Amino acid sequence: MEARCRWAGWKERLCSAEQAAALIENGMTVGMSGFTRAGEAKEVPRALAERARQDPLSITLMTGASLGNDLDKLLTDAKVLSRRMPFQVDATLRRAINAGEVMFIDQHLSETVELLRNRQLAEIDVAVVEACAITEEGGIVPTTSVGNSASYAILADKVIIELNLDAPAELEGLHDIYIPQMRPTRPPIPVVAPDSRIGTPYIPIDPGKIAAIVVTHGKDSPSTLLPPDADTRRIADHLIEFFADEVSIGRLTPSLLPLQAGIGTMANAVMSGLAEGPFDHLTMYSEVLQDSTFDLLDAGKLDFASGCSITLTEARGKRVWGNLDAYRDRLVLRPQELSNHPGIVRRLGIIAINTALEMDIYGNVNSTHVGGTRMMNGIGGSGDFARNAQLSIFVTKSVAKEGDLSSVVPFASHVDHTEHDVDVVVTEHGLADLRGLAPRERAARLIDQCADSRYRPALRRYFEHACQRGGHTPHCLEEAFSWHIAAERDGHMRRFQTEDAGARRGEHREEPPVAHPA
């Protein structure tokens, strides 16, 4: 215990989770650690939910991203949450959000603490942060994520620390905590490469704000990634071929550029596929480091990875957490306002690979809303990267629900990433390079290269009809949402399907040559 908690005043702050939860009052704004089911405070939220069942209260809850260990479900069921931001993945909370019972603020992940610092959001009353150690000065050493924990702890009136003795002690030294100065005299953030270290290995706070220390023993929830299937392997193959072509043309080197990949099975499978490509000395500047990061490290393909959390499947976690020293000098975890910082993303020339729910024929991407109205998870960091990356790539399977829904539609039901932020689109059928194309050219290419063969003829008919109407971005407004209306009314889009034996085999027209930006 003394090795983990080196601050002299720790014994005076030691208490139970229930005693710590009592510091959180009705109507407060609470900032909790946690990013993509990693590094969340585990016991105080449980105690808070249990208390709320007897003594109702509600709070505004801010985190880094999603919480693990079913904490969002527990807090939702106990009616603790009145407002939640900036990201979530829990089915119970999602239902409450879509029912209007919890007000959800869907934010770019780089912006939350910037808004807090500038007092554009309610001030943090209490921060609850998981730590693997407390330094002699009272500094907090995070566990498997940094997320927004640093700024929450610095800005909060009171700080509750969950000292998790099950978290590997070897995590200490992995973090790089840097807080940007206030505007308008802020100097440039001096991250010039994925392996730049510019801060401290702990969160520096005034120890006088430490109101409680709760000793815990708990694991992060393992990632629920699915293994790659035939479609995701084809998507990866299309991307590998594209990157190889970019290298041969001279727009990329064999080490590519720093890579970012969104969360989930699709992006993870695509990144894992790079191990089979002709690339070496890769680097990552991303948010969450998933199984694919360690696949590439183990394959000798990846030299260094920067992120703000590590989220692993159970099998991969056993290998990594039991052998963390083998990776320590090739990893760094930062606050998410740095891992996702638009200026750093642009400076490093990131290749961003994110997943779309749907896209329209012009390349507008919906990442968040099913049917245009029902929140799925949130925009997360995809917007931070898409607008500022050197290459902004979106991947998705061309259909959902076993072909009943097309992921390529005439008009996106909700737009998170406009056509101006989307360079390349990839499905299992092909890759559409949209750089340097006008809307009419983008539509023709995206339909031919990426749409499922059963929906391709209907999309072409819509586009041709719209072109007859004219306009820079042709549309038939009375038909634009007919695909979504069919899905809402019938539960499927099958009325727009056309059986085309040749197209069904994945055939499509050759991509016409198009001049690319220099």
Instruction: Tell me roughly what share of residues is in helical segments.
Output: 25-40%
First and last CA, distance: 58 Å
Query: How many discrete structural domains?
Result: 2
CATH topology of the largest domain: Glutaconate Coenzyme A-transferase
CATH architecture of the largest domain: 3-Layer(aba) Sandwich
Could you tell me the radius of gyration in angstroms? 24 Å
Query: Based on CA inertia axes, which overall geometry fits?
Result: globular
Indicate the CATH class of the largest domain: Alpha Beta
Number of strands: 25
Sheet bearing the most strands, described?
8 strands, mixed
Mean pLDDT across every amino acid position: 95
Summing up helix and strand content along with how strands pair, one would put the structural category as alpha/beta
Strand content bin: 15-25%
